[in-house]
């Protein structure tokens, strides 16, 4: 003895066309593009331009929160030497520089 009648079990979910499913997938793809992919690509392009425009003497902010002045730029291995003050200098990869600050920022701190 079955708890579900055969006629009800065979009926199942209403049959819809595949067009609605394709339309929904297309809408998800458009949302994904405008909400995730496009802003990320724009940020990556801006960061690449920032790294290529850095020059000796620029004041920069790193991902770790360090602020200093660029003293050396190594083109062959993408490292930058940053003077934090007169006595301390650190070497980091160019990728870790988040912003080039306006001139005179270090003196105002």
From TrEMBL:
Main location group: membrane
GO biological process, one term: protein transport
Subcellular location as annotated: Cell membrane
Pfam families tied to this protein: YajC (PF02699)
Alphabetical UniProt keywords: Cell membrane, Membrane, Protein transport, Translocation, Transmembrane, Transmembrane helix, Transport
Bilayer-crossing regions: 20-37
Entry membrane topology: Single-pass membrane protein
Family annotation (SMART domains): YajC
InterPro entries: Preprotein_translocase_YajC
One CC-aspect GO term: plasma membrane
Hydrolase found in the keyword field: no
Family under the similarity heading: Belongs to the YajC family.
Name listed for the protein in its UniProt record: Sec translocon accessory complex subunit YajC
Gene: yajC
